[in-house]
């Protein structure tokens, strides 16, 4: 589908305009990306020098998207398992920006948080599942590529940390139960027969499936909830859009601003300005600091362990 590029609304220009919009709005859509978790030490993808993609290039991987490509994963999961520890979250912490989204929820203003993040820290921050769309899935669960058996994501964290491919315990158990009794080794007629006989048997030995975190890889479908909620509920009722900490380069999330009614104000909060989408106001800086300042101007108190007392 093709959407017209939205035009900037002339009446919104300053941070005080945004603070006023926050106070007045009732149904806020928040679209988030990796930038809201970088203050916790989880690298984003595309920031120069510090992003995960830069690190991959330093390690000699020049097409970093391949690490998250589903066909590549099925061919050779060891690439993902060798590198994914670099973006594994510490699931015990969330950032002040997560706390800001929670504050919107507590004030009854959060319509939906569309997160592209896979760290599942929205759950840690207490965002209600009914208000959260994890557009690209998350590390919260993992599934077998063969039998679809699903486990808690944390079960495969030790493998990711150890850079070892995790295989499916259910597949392994089924294979062990179905295993034929060990064959007696055939006596080779000639020395050169031994190899060929044994190899042909090895090739047919069934193996357990590989576990993959339930994050959406390139080449996989987004969850249906994304499209359903956007079209059926949010596009009709949202009255303010905040886009925070994302380069907005990955479709279809990048298309949301053009898809929504064009009279709805759109605000962008991130380190770098964006040009391919017309936002009404761009607030540039560390998002934790920007949302704190917005709260201050709106007369709201944002509490978080990383914000000093009395600040
Ligand atoms: P991206 O393309 O790396 O963009 C991140 C954006 O955030 C950039 O524009 C940065 O300038 C900006 N940014 C970084 N740190 C801050 C900060 N402290 N304050 C303000 N702005 C900041 O990442 P996107 O999220 O746009 O790309 C979508 C990908 C990234 C999704 O598929 C995710 O799964 C994937 N990702 C997620 C995580 C995570 O879950 N924490 C980590 C790394 C990548």
What features would you describe in this structure?
- It is elongated and about 85 Å long.
- The protein has a six-stranded parallel sheet, with helices on both faces. A three-stranded antiparallel sheet has the order 5-4-6, with no helix packed on it.
- It contains twelve helices and nine strands.
- The protein has a domain of 175 residues: Rossmann fold.
- Strand 7, helix 11 and strand 8 form a beta-alpha-beta unit.
- The longest helix has 14 residues.
- Helix 1 packs across helix 12.
- It is an alpha/beta fold and 311 residues long.
- The site of carba-nicotinamide-adenine-dinucleotide has 29 residues, from loops.
- Contiguous low-pLDDT stretches (5 residues minimum) are 190-199
Q: Evaluate the radius of gyration.
A: 24 Å
Structural class: alpha/beta
**Element order: H for helix, E for strand:** HEHHHHEHEEEHHHEHEHEEH
The CATH class of one domain is identified as: Alpha Beta
In the sheet with the most strands, the strands line up as 3-2-1-7-8-9
Question: Strand content of the residues, in percent?
Answer: 5-15%
At the fold tier of CATH, the topology name of one domain is Rossmann fold
Largest beta-sheet characterization: 6 strands, parallel
Number of helices: 12
Bound molecules: carba-nicotinamide-adenine-dinucleotide
CATH architecture of one domain: 3-Layer(aba) Sandwich
Share of residues in helices: 25-40%
What's the shape? Answer: elongated
Mean pLDDT: 91
| Name given to the CATH homologous superfamily of one domain | TPP-binding domain
Number of strands: 9
Straight-line distance between termini: 46 Å
């Amino acid at each position: 589908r093709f959407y017209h590029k939205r035009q900037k609304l002339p009446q919104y220009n300053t941070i005080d305009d945004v603070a006023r919009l926050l106070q007045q709005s009732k149904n806020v859509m928040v679209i988030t990306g990796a930038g809201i978790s970088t203050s916790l030490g989880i690298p984003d993808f595309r920031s120069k020098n510090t992003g995960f993609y830069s690190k991959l290039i330093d390690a000699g991987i020049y097409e970093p998207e391949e690490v998250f490509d589903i066909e590549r994963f099925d061919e050779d999961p060891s690439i993902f398992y060798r590198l994914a520890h670099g973006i594994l979250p510490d699931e015990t912490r969330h950032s002040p920006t997560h706390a800001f989204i929670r504050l919107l929820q507590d004030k009854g203003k959060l319509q939906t948080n569309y997160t592209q993040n896979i760290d599942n820290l929205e759950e840690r921050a207490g965002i209600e599942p009914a208000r959260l769309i994890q557009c690209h899935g998350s590390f919260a669960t993992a599934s077998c590529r063969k039998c679809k058996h699903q486990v808690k994501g944390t079960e495969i964290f030790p493998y990711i940390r150890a850079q070892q491919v995790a295989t499916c315990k259910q597949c392994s158990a089924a294979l062990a139960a179905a295993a034929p009794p060990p064959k007696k080794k055939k006596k080779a007629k000639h020395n050169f027969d031994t190899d060929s006989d044994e190899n042909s048997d090895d090739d047919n030995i069934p193996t357990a499936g590989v576990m993959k975190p339930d994050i959406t890889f390139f080449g996989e479908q987004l969850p249906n909830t994304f499209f359903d909620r956007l079209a059926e509920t949010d596009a009709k009722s949202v009255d303010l859009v905040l886009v925070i900490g994302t380069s907005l380069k990955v479709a279809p999330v990048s298309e949301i601003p053009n898809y929504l009614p064009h009279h709805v104000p759109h605000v962008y909060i991130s380190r770098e300005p964006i040009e391919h989408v017309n936002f009404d106001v761009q607030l540039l800086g560390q998002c934790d600091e920007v949302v704190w300042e917005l709260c201050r101007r709106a007369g709201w108190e944002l509490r978080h362990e990383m914000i000093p007392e009395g600040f």
